[in-house]
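The authors assume throughout that readers already know how a fold can be written as C-alpha cells. What matters is that the chain and its backbone geometry are given together, residue for residue. A single example would do more here than another paragraph of explanation. For illustration, here is how one protein appears when written out as sequence plus C-alpha cells.
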Amino acid sequence: MFVEHFLIPEANETNVYLLACSETRRAALIDAGAFEHRVVDCARENSFHVQYILVTHDHYDHVGGLASYVEAFPGCEVIAGGANPGGISARAPADRGLIRVGNLKGTALAIPGHTEDSTAWLFEAGDDSACFGLAPALVFCGDVLFAGSIGGTFGSAAHEQEIEGIRRKLFTLPDNTVLYPGHGPATTVGIEKHHSPFFGL
C-alpha cells in the first residue's frame, strides 16, 4: 500500500491523498482541491494508473480541481456521495458499499452532517499494516472529523447527525485505525474517541 499526502494551500489548505496498491499499481485520488501538478507527477513517476477519484463531499476546496484531474487521468471514475460534484458526473456509492483499488479493499461510509453527501473512505491495510504503525485500516474522512475537532454543521439536527455517524461508523473501528482528515494532521480513532472535546466518553 502506498499513501502520499499533498497539501493544497490555495484551496483552503485542503489535504489531497493518493492511495495505491503497490502490487497492481492501481490507484485512487481522494478529494480534488485546486489542481496540483505534483499529484499527477507522483502518479506518473510511480507508474500508477488512477482508477478512481473519491470525493468526500462537494465543497469547493475538495472539488475545485476535479475537472482538471479527470482530464489528467483519462478513464478514471468519479465516486461521490452526491450527484455532479464540482459539476462532474459521478457514481454514488451505497452506504458501506465496496470498491477495490487493485488488491486494496475500500468501503464507503456515509456520515452526513457537515454536508448531506459527506462520505468517509475506509481501506484495510492488510499485509501492509506494519508500514502504518500496525494500523489495521486507514480512513480518509474529509471534513467529518479532524484532529481534536469535527466538521462544522448548520443547526443542531445536523450536528447531532454528524456526532451519531462518527460514533457508529468511525468509533466502532479499532483504536489504532489511522484517520486522514480533509484539513490538518492525521490522527487515530483512539485519540479522537478518548480525547476529543466533542465526545463525552
Q: What stands out?
A: The first strand starts at residue 2 and ends at 8.
